[in-house]
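USER:
Try writing one entry.

ASSISTANT:
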Amino acid sequence: MFWKFNLISTSRIETLLAKENITLQELMDEQDILQECKAENKALIEFLIRPEIMTEMVNLVITEPQEDLDENIKYKYSNMASMLLTSDVPQINDSLANDKVLLNKLYSFLENDKPLNPLLASFFSKTLGILISRKTEAILEFLKSKDFINMIINHLRDRKSVV
């Protein structure tokens, strides 16, 4: 009976993904993106793990937003990128952990000499934390090749940032 009336509805995410030039920001504006991601919506995951989209999400996590943005939305996309990257979807974890360029870009957040933005530091640590817990061996090998402990200690000395 259910099938007879074709009551199956497609999500707004599916509709957007069918568009040719959909942007990450357009998807992030959708209320159910995180739910669809955690439900491992195939089309959404395939979109998110594209190298350019992964790079855009990492950039959102580690880069200060424009100063002139309204305070209510200033960190909206940074927060959403962090939530998507840490949604514990295996394909996203694999894409980030297996891409040295992305890992170096993420790690570059710590190479900043000035005090870290505490909110961005929380997004960074959340992202790195999920990678350490899910891709322990690969991430620890990567961190061993860096001056990770000293970088953390240097930033912990700065009382404005908490990593």
About this structure: The longest helix spans residues 118-134. Confidence is low (pLDDT under 50) at residues 1-8. The chain has eleven helices and no strands. Residues 121 and 163 are 5 Å apart (CA to CA).
